[in-house]
């Protein structure tokens, strides 16, 4: 017999554990299961094991709304975040609902039966279950491997080449010359972290990125926890950080020259005298055209001041047996090269989705409120913000799914599906973001629309009103009852 659950959640990472907590709290009697392809809780935070791995957002917004972050450091290391996720799952008993080693490959919706049939591969065999509602929380990273350009001559390099997403546990970089290719969040994390043992670490970038220093410890949060306790201090600090992030983003969009000048001034103060700031820390794009990189307590700048790290801005001509030849003619000697050159995206975990036997091609669908697909019933997914913490959006999506299910219970509905029948809505990219990892894969994703509710917003305040408070019935979300089920 095929097992049936009320809700099937795909992924046991930050989003999936949060989704399960919301559902478990709202509907204690509802059945659910989490299908996780890997053998551990944590998703990205269990996968990434490179030196210094940490959050690129403060933990008062990256943490769950329902569970205060109580550590002193607001910019937290990967192991601490992983413990936070696992503790959340353990305390609520969510871990007992996880099926590890179950990689979902297909999901088929039947209108006649008003249910999903989900196929997963476990130990080389297909496992099948059915569910009333399918909730995809697999993120959008391709876990099999990151993005590495085809560098000329890389095969003749005599040293070690490693991508951060597949960091070897036994890699010893003590006393080695290390070159980190890249300038994004991973690169600016790796460079200072590896200076503790490496002879020297060089960050080789094709073009600069905006980098801001942020205190690793939020002193206001520490004081408020002492005065009010963690439960009351957490929402205050969370909203303080949300407002700060929003104001910075809005100012960056409206007054980019001002923000660029402010970032440059702060950068100059943290670098050695005479450092060529305009070559290495002056991006060609405006702030927040791509995500800003945060460095806790200016650790990257501190490494540059000490001389244990350096930055080179140039293009790679090719690899040699002993390092990297640059287009300028300079040669970088290296024992280890880290290709922090980006990630690869995978829409909906690569699941093949069908509705009544019809294959759903994601680029032909439109995302409703950034969390459901046009023409796909009883289905939701989580994609977080690119200009703020992922979990801010993930929590709101979970809250909306709870509201949606309650509305269906109250009305006796079996099916909900967003329908785009407005010819005036034109298509837009789902993620309007200029980062390379997004642009390489965006055509494989659902589309966004030119106006609400098909436009994917990047404003937490706006989404909070829309997803938490506005009516579920909006004329676009259609509800129906299964006559066969009701008759029975």
From TrEMBL:
Q: Record's superkingdom? A: Bacteria
Record field: transmembrane:
none
Coiled-coil stretches: none
InterPro entries named in the record: FAD-binding_MO, FAD/NAD-bd_sf, Flavin_mOase-like
Fetch the Pfam families from UniProt: FMO-like, NAD_binding_8
> Sorted alphabetically, which keywords does the UniProt record give?
FAD, Flavoprotein, Monooxygenase, Oxidoreductase
Family membership, please give it.
Belongs to the FAD-binding monooxygenase family.
Protein name, as recorded? NAD(P)/FAD-dependent oxidoreductase
């Amino acid at each position: 017999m095929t097992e049936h659950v009320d809700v099937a959640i795909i992924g046991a990472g930050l989003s999936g554990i949060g989704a399960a907590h919301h559902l478990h709290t709202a509907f204690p009697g509802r059945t659910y299961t989490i299908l996780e392809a890997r053998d551990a809780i944590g998703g990205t935070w269990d996968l990434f094991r490179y030196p210094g791995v940490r959050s690129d957002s403060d933990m008062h917004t990256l943490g769950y709304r329902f569970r205060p972050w109580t550590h002193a450091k607001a910019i937290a290391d990967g192991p601490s975040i992983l413990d936070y996720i696992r503790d959340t799952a353990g305390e609520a008993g969510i871990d007992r609902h996880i099926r590890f080693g179950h990689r979902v490959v297909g999901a088929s919706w039947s209108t006649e039966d008003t249910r999903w049939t989900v196929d997963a591969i476990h130990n080389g065999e297909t496992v099948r279950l059915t569910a009333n509602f399918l909730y995809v929380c697999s993120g959008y990273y391709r876990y099999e491997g990151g993005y590495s350009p085809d560098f000329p001559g890389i095969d003749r390099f005599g040293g070690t080449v490693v991508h951060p997403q597949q960091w070897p546990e036994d890699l010893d970089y003590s006393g080695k010359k290390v070159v980190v290719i890249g300038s994004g969040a991973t690169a600016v994390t790796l460079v200072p972290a590896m200076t503790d043992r490496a002879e020297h670490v060089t960050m080789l970038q094709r073009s600069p990125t905006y980098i801001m220093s942020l205190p690793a410890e939020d002193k206001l949060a520490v004081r408020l926890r002492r005065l009010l306790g963690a439960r009351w201090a957490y929402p205050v600090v969370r909203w303080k950080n949300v407002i700060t992030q929003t104001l910075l983003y809005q100012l960056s969009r409206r007054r980019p020259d001002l923000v660029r000048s402010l970032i440059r001034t702060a950068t100059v103060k943290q670098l050695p005298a005479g450092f060529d700031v305009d070559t290495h820390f002056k991006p060609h794009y405006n702030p927040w055209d791509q995500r800003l990189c945060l460095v806790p307590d200016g650790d990257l700048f501190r490494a540059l001041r000490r001389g244990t790290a350096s930055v080179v801005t140039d293009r790679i001509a090719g690899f040699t047996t002993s390092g990297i030849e640059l287009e300028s003619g300079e040669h970088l000697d290296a024992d280890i090269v880290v290709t922090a050159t980006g990630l690869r995206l995978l829409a909906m975990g690569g699941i093949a989705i069908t509705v009544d036997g019809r294959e759903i091609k994601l680029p032909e669908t439109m995302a409703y409120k950034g969390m459901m697909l046009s023409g796909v019933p009883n289905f939701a997914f989580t994609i977080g913000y690119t200009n703020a913490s992922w979990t801010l959006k993930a929590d709101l999506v979970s809250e909306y799914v709870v509201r949606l299910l309650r509305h269906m219970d109250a009305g006796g509905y079996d099916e909900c599906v967003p329908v785009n029948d407005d010819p005036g809505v034109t298509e837009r990219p789902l993620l309007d973001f200029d980062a390379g990892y997004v642009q390489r894969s965006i055509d494989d994703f659902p589309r966004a629309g030119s106006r609400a509710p098909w436009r994917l917003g990047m404003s937490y305040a706006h989404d909070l009103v829309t997803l938490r408070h506005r009516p579920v019935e909006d004329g676009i979300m259609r509800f129906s009852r299964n006559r066969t089920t009701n008759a029975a």
